[in-house]
Design brief:
The structure holds two protein chains of two kinds. Chain A is mostly helical. Chain A has 13 helices and two strands. In chain B, helix 10 runs antiparallel to helix 11. Classes of the chains: A mainly alpha, B mainly alpha.
């Protein structure tokens, strides 16, 4: 009986290690396919060059890195004011009933497929931008607005949870000292919930960096260094998805190398989120 | 002395407006798609095959493809996910190992689908020679939804009160018997919630499917056939401008399915939590 229990425990341990094994397998295969080209071109030549013309054997992804950075920054700028006001309002000003209804609804909306968001950019934002701001439509601006909306549910939901996790005694202490609700929020609750909200924002950044299909539909995908918000750009993810089905040889390796850059970025973001969250718990 | 109260009023209004905008945008998207799509959807749209690359006809093969692909993913991911959550919540205290497993799960949850797609393409499609097939796609999607299932099941297992376990153990049940006969049945609604959320995520997925399962527009007859899911079909219709009408129709079915699935999952989890708290 005892040995059977031990066997089961051992089996479960092996299963529990599966996520780690999968993570390592992903890293291994992406590295195996992509690393040779990085070593040949040099890290600097790969990351710091803006020349991407696979036919001529030029593989520089700086334009894509810049494209990704612009769109992600834009998405956060669009998303933060809305998601934070939503979270603060629902957590601190609304009745529990309103919060109990709206929070699950907002979370349900996180389930809308990303291609639908991309499609909304095409049919709603393209004409608006063409008519009022000029340009063709596909641009940093379009992609930022759509991605910003896409990550709204993620950030809002985590921020509400962090605000709700602040002990009630904090609120009561501050209010009993004569502070208004807003003063309490600004000086007591937000600082206490800061770590949770920050890790939510970082998860949102991760989603924006990693989004592929929606971005392909609305960012324009030109390999250029953008000069204005209305210029089309290509992201790292789009670069992989657009060229993978016909790439061979060095070109294919370069796409996997693009994947390596993406993978490392995401892991770093996760480490930051993890460290912030743990710091919050220890405090 | 009026100032702080004044600010309170101003901020409250600003926050309210922000909330209203957020909720409005999200509702607008659903409303807009349904408004344009519901007219296209009828039984024929659901049950007939596409003609002329999707310009006419229905989406039946895509519905079949979506169902089969998520089923395969779930069948692979469920034992791994539930096993992991049992190990994490029943067999260990918080240690170095569990924190590594948790970190691995978080990282896996954050990895963009395009990376899963690349990985599944090299490992399953090319290296193991499975080709663009339901099996390659299902395996890759299973890896992507694993974190969702682990987290939800763990939460469900943890919500089972300790005295349930104590009673079983004091009656002479072994640890495994306690888990199988007491803990898992009590946590079942929560575990099912995790699986349902996993189904929803695999229905939404586009990039992985294109990279590992392909986009062949035929009803699959074996696990080694390529298939096209509704998300992929919608993407191709919209991006290549094949048929806006059918794109709206497909998006309508997609959104209704996902919202129903998510709402059901939420209701199930809510019931479980209410029962034990």
């Amino acid at each position: 009986m005892k040995s059977r229990e031990n066997l089961i425990q051992f089996g479960l341990l092996i299963i529990a290690l599966s996520t780690i094994v999968i993570l390592l397998l992903i890293a291994l295969f992406i590295l195996k396919e992509g690393l040779p080209i990085i070593l040949r071109v040099g890290i600097k030549g790969f990351i710091c060059s803006t020349h991407w013309s696979p036919q001529q054997g030029q593989f520089g992804i700086l334009a894509m890195i810049i494209g990704t950075a612009w769109i992600t920054a834009g998405a956060i700028l669009v998303s933060l004011p809305l998601s934070l006001s939503c979270a603060i309002y629902l957590s601190e000003f609304s009745t529990p009933k309103v919060r109990g209804t709206l929070k699950p609804i907002i979370e349900l909306l996180a389930g809308i497929p990303s291609v639908v968001y991309g499609f909304m950019g095409m049919v709603i934002l393209f004409p608006l931008i063409r008519n009022y701001l000029g340009g063709a439509g596909p641009s940093i601006l379009t992609a930022s607005v759509i991605l910003g909306i896409m990550i709204l549910p993620t950030i809002t939901s985590i921020a509400i949870d962090s605000l709700q996790a602040v002990p009630h005694s904090y609120r009561e202490g501050s209010l009993s000292l004569g502070a208004t609700r807003w003063q309490t929020i600004r000086m007591v609750i937000l600082p206490a919930a800061k770590t949770g909200i920050l890790s939510g924002i970082i998860l949102g950044i991760g989603r924006a960096v990693g989004e592929t299909m929606a971005v392909i539909m609305i960012a324009g995908n030109s390999v250029i260094i953008p000069k204005s918000l209305l210029d089309p750009v290509r992201t790292l993810t789009a670069n992989i998805a657009l060229e993978m089905n016909y790439a061979t040889g060095d070109h294919r390796q370069a796409l996997f190398a693009t994947g390596i850059v993406l993978f490392i970025t995401i892991i770093i973001l996760n480490i930051i989120a993890h460290t912030i969250a743990r710091g919050g718990v220890e405090k | 002395m009026l100032k702080p109260i004044f600010w309170e009023q101003v901020m409250k209004k600003i926050l309210f407006v922000g909330t209203a905008i957020t909720v409005f945008i999200l509702f607008f998207i659903i409303f807009y798609i349904l408004k344009n799509g519901l007219a296209v959807v009828d039984m024929e749209f659901l049950l007939s095959s596409p003609k002329d690359f999707g310009r006419a006809g229905g989406i039946f093969p895509c519905i079949v493809g979506t169902i089969v692909l998520s089923l395969v993913a779930i069948i692979i991911a469920t034992p791994l996910g539930v096993g992991t959550s049992i190990y994490l919540s029943e067999y260990t205290r918080e240690s170095k190992l569990t924190s590594i497993i948790r970190f691995g799960t978080d990282c896996l949850a954050g990895i963009p689908s395009i990376i899963f797609g690349l990985f599944g393409f090299v490992l399953f499609v090319v290296y193991l020679g499975l080709g663009w097939s339901i099996l390659s796609g299902g395996l890759t999607i299973a890896f992507m939804i694993l974190p969702t299932i682990i987290r939800t099941s763990e939460e469900a297992i943890k919500s089972v009160p300790d005295y349930y376990r104590e009673v079983s153990l004091s009656l002479g049940g072994t640890k495994w018997q306690t888990i199988v006969k007491v803990v898992l049945p009590s946590a079942l609604p929560g575990i099912v919630t995790g699986i349902i959320l996993g189904v929803a995520r695999s229905i939404e997925e586009t990039a992985i499917v294109i990279f590992t399962a392909g986009s062949v527009l035929r009803i699959p007859t074996s696990l080694f056939d390529s298939c096209r899911t509704m998300s992929v079909h919608f993407y191709i219709l919209a991006r290549e401008g094949i048929s806006m009408e059918n794109a709206y129709g497909t998006a309508t079915i997609l959104i209704i399915t996902i919202l129903l699935i998510n709402a059901f999952a939420y209701w199930l989890m809510h019931r479980l939590m209410a029962k034990y708290s």
